[in-house]
Structure formats: structure tokens, C-alpha cells
């Protein structure tokens, strides 16, 4: 079985590492705009060979699109065009609506599976890839009924085998929920990083003063702009609404502080404490 | 040497555990509004005995105020009143200006040392205390010249011996910097937690969908309202300004997203990426 990884970064690379451990007879082909990424992925044992996209697709049983989501939009139609009849193309993009809308317009839609592994770190590139990234995490599949049964089965089998838990929803549900539980977290971290950097132009003051509270909240501000700008753009309606909601809570809290309304301030935080139960649910997984 | 810990929570408890390991002949007296906290602290070996404040202070060599900062304001004058001549009272509060202003008005100011250990977790109470909390972290001492040399020496010796690194600044500098590098992080997490909870009234959706990105950003939303409400209130001017700055960055980013200005969106995030270097500095410590 030939599996082509398009975009051998954190996600594509980690997927390959997890799958190849279970499927040692599969052949992994890497396609990446960056020659350096290809070299590193070869040397790290993520892929068995590197080749250009147009050579890889026609010989693939499974094509995995693990590039930024704008690149997915650019590449997907062409990939479907040249994809062999029994083969499947899978995307791992962090947005789903734009990608699914595009795929729906293609005559070979049934050979496409729309997925999103809920996993990542703030690092990028094949150097960041590691086998343990995906196992134990959740995979979301959207519009599964629009994929051919065999294509869906292939994808489900692989991801279940590497230890992921599968969830199904529409692309609209996916993008709405992710705006709140993921995209907003990243934006809040970027903005927090900027706010602190702007104020503490002397970075030494930050070094001296920050405790791990700061580190964890702002960790996501290390994330790749090239990955996230297309995500926020494709999911702009939901992200914009999530931001509006978030800003409103912040303004409300600011008002409580300005008014010295300690009692309601306590309530505000006590309600947020409910997240403890939620997080314990997540951490138990 | 008798050391009284007033408020045997995460901080007071962890301080006692770290110090008693190095100073096995010291006697630790616990004072806490909660009888349960006293019982737990005794059973856990954090303190050697529990007693009311008015009994503890007159027999102490060092009194450590590790309560919420509003309680510190309430208790400090009375403690200074009854503190023996050669003894020292130390506070560990997360704000410094209000506390120092109050202390400055007391005739026995020189027996007071204003400090703040930059360390914590989102947990509270003696059950949360652990010996390794403070070692390796930073301690800030404010207005050191207003403390008697022996009082300062006692505090510095203890904290250095348990492995903390000492920094000195004015209470004003402390409160300003902390508004940005600490207090704002906590507020952003509280608000993020509320925004997500409000939207995802079905908590299961959050369980299913969140990845560790969400967990780390919102972890601080588990923090104690009783601890944080007084901090935000005492430091309200700086905190309000920090919030205003943060909200502005968020609104700016929202505008870039609404305008589909991907190029400036990339810039915005690239500037925030500078925090990577800052965080690596923190993590190396």
C-alpha cells in the first residue's frame, strides 16, 4: 500500500510515524514544497521516498493532505482529478467547511474523506513530528456519508489502529465548535503575547517575573502564522463571533474591576471554575 | 526558631515544607481561619502545631503572611503591634503596593519584609502544598531598604537556601509588571473559560473536541476566586490598563480577520512569535 503524505510537517509526519509502526509493509511517499523538509523526513525515517505531487498521486492508494488549509483548497481538485479509481484522498485540515464545499463540487467527491485530528503542539515541520502525537486523541470526520464506504473504511481503520477516537459531525458543526475551543485559544495567546511584549519592551523583566502561569497561557503564541492565518480566514465568521463574545466577557470583567465590584467578580470567576470539571474530563482521556 | 505560617494554603504550606527540610530544628506553627486546613497541615507534616493568631505571634521569630491579600491588609497592623522586638513579619502577597503603603504607616515598619514568590499552581489549600513548588523560582522583595538589616537577612537567607532567586524592586514596579505578566493571564483564562462554557452548554462537546491547546490556555481558569478577586481589586489601576491594552489587540486582530487582511494577520502573529524566545528564557531557568 502506497501512502502519500502531502506536507510532511508536524501532523503529516506524526501520522506517518504512527501508521508505519503498525503497517511496516506500507510505503510512505513524501511530497513537500520544501526540499529541506523532504530531506529531513527521509533521514528521520518518516518517509521512504520524496517525489513531486504529480508523480505521487497516480501511484497512491491513500493521499493525505496535511498542508495549511489554503494549500488544501489549492491542491485538492487537482489531486481528485488524477487520483486512481480505487484510491482515497484524506485531508487533515483544521477547518472543514470551505474544504468540504470545494470537494462537494467535484465529480469524484466520494473518494475524499474530510477529517481533522484534534492534536498538535506549537511546533512545526518534520523535526517536530513524533509518533505519540496522535494516539489517544480525537479524530473528527465530517460528512462521512458523502465518502465511499471503502474510502471511509480505510481511513477509519488506520486512525482507529493508531489509537484515535472517532467523532462525526457536519463541517458546519466542526467549524463552529472549533472557533470556540481551539481558534479562540490561539488568538487569545497571540494577543496576550503581544500585549506583554509591547509593555515589557525590556524582555529581561519578563524573564525575571513570569511564572509558569504566564508560560502556559501564552505557549500557543509560539504557533506558526503560516498555519493559523488561513485557518482564521477560512473560519472567519465563527472566529469573529467567538472573538466578539470573548471581548465582551473581558469588558464585563474590566467593568467589575473598575467598579470595585468584588462580589460579582467572585461570581464571574466561580462560574469559570466550572471549567475544572471539563478539563478533568479532557485530561482523563 | 519559631516560624508561624498564617494561612496554610498552597504557598504557606509549600514554603513550610521547603524550609523545614533545610531547617529541621525549626518549629512551625500554623494559623488558619479553617480548622480543617489546620488539621490537614498537621497530619501532612507541614506544621508542628496549630494555634490562634494572637497566641502565635508573640512567640514567633518569623511570621509568614500567606493569606489572600485582603486578609494581609486586615492582619498586618495587628501582627506588627504584638510582634516581639527581634522578630520579623513577612508577607507573600501577589500585590505589593497596598500592603507596603499600609506597612509604611506603622511605627514598626522595619520589622516587615514585603515579598512575593513567583510560583503557584491553580490549586489551593494545604492539600495542594508540595515541597518543590518554590525551589528554582523567583522571589521578589520590595522596598528592601525599609526593612531592618537583620529582618532582610533572615528572609533572604531562608529563601536563598530553599533555592529561590531574589529580585528587588519598588512595590509600584512590581504591581505594574505583574498586571501584565501574571494578572492578565489569569483574567484571559477566566474569560476564555466562560466564553467556551457559555457557547458549549453541552459540556460533552468540549470534552470531545478540545485538544491540549485549549487545556493549557484555560488551565488558570481553575484558580481560586477567593485568592484572585482581592488581587485584581488591589491592583485595579494596572489590571484595568492591562485589560484595556489586551482588548485593543484582540479588537485589532478581529478587524484583520473581518477584513480578510491575511498579510497583516501573518505579521501580527509573527510579532507574537517573539514570545518563543522569551518563553525559552523562562523555561531554561
UniProtKB/TrEMBL annotation, chains A, B:
E.C. number(s) listed in UniProt: 1.3.1.12
Protein name listed in UniProt: Prephenate dehydrogenase
Listed GO MF terms: NAD+ binding; prephenate dehydrogenase (NAD+) activity; prephenate dehydrogenase (NADP+) activity
NCBIfam families xref list: PRK08507.1
Taxonomic source organism: Fibrella rubiginis
Top-level class of the enzyme under EC nomenclature: oxidoreductase
Transmembrane segments: none
Matching InterPro entries: 6-PGluconate_DH-like_C_sf (IPR008927), NAD(P)-bd_dom_sf (IPR036291), PDH_C (IPR046825), PDH_N (IPR046826), Preph/Arog_dehydrog (IPR050812), Prephen_DH (IPR003099)
Keywords, in A-Z order: Oxidoreductase
Ranges where the Prephenate/arogenate dehydrogenase domain occurs: 1-285
SUPFAM superfamilies assigned: 6-phosphogluconate dehydrogenase C-terminal domain-like, NAD(P)-binding Rossmann-fold domains
Source taxon at top rank: Bacteria
